[in-house]
Amino acid sequence: MRRALALGSVPFSTPRLPAALLAVALLIAGCGGGGGGGPGGGDSSTPALGQDGGESGAAGALGFPAFATKNTTRVGGADPVADAAGVARAVYPARSRDTRPPAVTLVDRDDWRTAISAAQLMADPIRAPVLFSEGDELPEATDAALEALGPPGAPQAGGAQVLRMGAAPAPDGLKATDVKGADFAALARGIDRLATSAAGTASEAVIVAPADAPAFAMPAAGWAAKSGDPVLWAGRDSLPPDTRAAIESHQRPRIYVLGPPSAISENVERELSRLGRTTRIEGRDPVENAIAFARFSDGRFGWNVVDPGHGLVFASTGRTAEAAAAAPLSASGAYGPLLLLPDANTLPESLQNYLLDIQPGYRTDPVRGVYNHGWLMGDEQAISLDVQARIDTLLEIQAVDEER
Q1: Which of 34, 42, 21, 35 is nearest to 386 (CA)?
Q2: Which of the residues 90, 133, 237, 241 has an alpha carbon 20 to 30 A from that of 375?
Q3: Is 345 helix (H, G, I), strand (E, B) or coil?
Q4: Cα 244 from Cα 10, distance rounded (Å)
């Protein structure tokens, strides 16, 4: 039995649905499992187009509320492979050359560190979303997405249509560029080298994420996709030589350490400070760490999401690779940081308070207000329908009491 969400609620108002996104779920329907329907029966986890009013359960068959509510849209795959394919299709509808990605990045789904680093290639000028292989095989979801996306080739990457990370396979008939490396730190350095070559200049900032604390590292992917800053890696008490070499190639960049000292120690932070000005962004747990990153601002670095009017992306800490799958949503559309939930059935108090803090309001007319929108990654095993409904409420624009 689903656990009830032990949080209060506020009134819902007239539905307002993000448009033109049903193709996401139609792709997932053919390539990944979904969670069960919503309470009360009749809700489908897979929207079906073409339902008419004479059909029983037509509203549920359209996918509401599991696929979308007025302020949320769910990419409802059963795993990151399906969700990466769905996100790529949402960001790139592929109905014309200018709605196709120049290239795609292929990463083994089990190599979450390289996948997070590869999100850097979603930034300008390459704009390549991450898709997943399963070892040296292409799962059906990825194969179908590749065929549908039809990447024409990225001029800044030598015309490559596919950017292969490590041991990921080379799809037949597509021009591929390989990024090789002995381990994830070397691959991250190779990804950054490719991104720097494509951009024509090295970024002024780098992120150093914890290689042994995946939930603390997840928020780095979305920022890398938006900014083009690399995600490099450190152990709790060690700095890999490839990470050091990559940072040195940026010639004393601003270095941002993501996570608390339990994830990357103060000794490593001191070692990094010899390579550039170093700042730590941290929270006590992965949820608060992601919120701290969402709030953070330092010049041109950081989301600075401290007020209403933003896109937000939500994912489960239990699905690390979702960070890379979701990264294109942080780098397009409404843009926005990744926020985390450790339990499918619970909205953490710290996250609820953050959403309340940035909830939109209006004084006279909501049409003149600003709006928040949330993307949810995964099926109900990742984020339940109850939590989705609560997030929807917290994103809704509210009337401001003039007397307060």
Answers
A1: 35
A2: 133
A3: coil
A4: 49
Residue whose C-alpha is closest to residue 351's, from 364, 342, 360, 362: 342
Q: Of 79, 63, 65, 70, which is closest to residue 25 (Cα–Cα)?
A: 63
Range 199-220 average pLDDT: 98
Strand extents, DSSP E, 85-199: 104-108, 130-133, 162-165, 176-179
Any idea where the domains of the chain sit in the sequence? Answer: 22-399
Take residue 25 and report the two structure tokens written for it.
């779920």
β-pair partners for 105: 130, 163
Judged on CB neighbours under 10 Å (0-12, 13-18, 19+), 362 is middle
pLDDT of 340 higher than 60? yes
| Residue in 347, 336, 328, 325 with CA at minimum distance from that of residue 394 | 347
User: Considering only CA atoms, which of 165, 13, 19, 83 is closest in space to residue 383?
Assistant: 83
Alpha carbon distance 280, 208 (integer Å) = 9
**Rounded to two decimals, what is the model's pTM?**
0.88
The CA dihedral of 212, 213, 219, 222, to the nearest 10 degrees, is 20
- DSSP run (H or E) holding 189: helix 184-199
Contact 148, 123 (CB under 8 A): no
Cα separation, 63 vs 37, whole angstroms: 9
Give residue 403's pLDDT: 55
Q: Is the dihedral of CA 347, 24, 191, 321 positive or negative?
A: positive
Q: What are phi and psi of 273, to 5 degrees?
A: -65, -20
The SS3 assignment for 133 reads strand
Contact 362, 327 (CB under 8 A): no
Question: Strand, helix or coil at 122?
Answer: helix
> Could you give the CA distance from residue 243 to residue 237 in angstroms, rounded to a whole number?
13
| Interaxial angle between packed helices 80-91 and 322-330, expressed in degrees from 0 to 180 and rounded to the nearest 10 | 10
What pLDDT digit, counting tens, does each position of 343-354 carry? 999 999 999 999
153: left (phi over 0), alpha (psi -120 to 50) or beta: left
| H-helix segments, 19-118 | 22-29, 58-61, 80-91, 112-118
Distance, in Å, from the CA atom of 309 to the CA atom of 289, rounded to the nearest integer, reads: 21
Stated as kind and residue range, the H or E segment containing 221 is helix 220-227
Q: Kindly give the pairing relationship between strand 254-258 and strand 205-210.
A: parallel
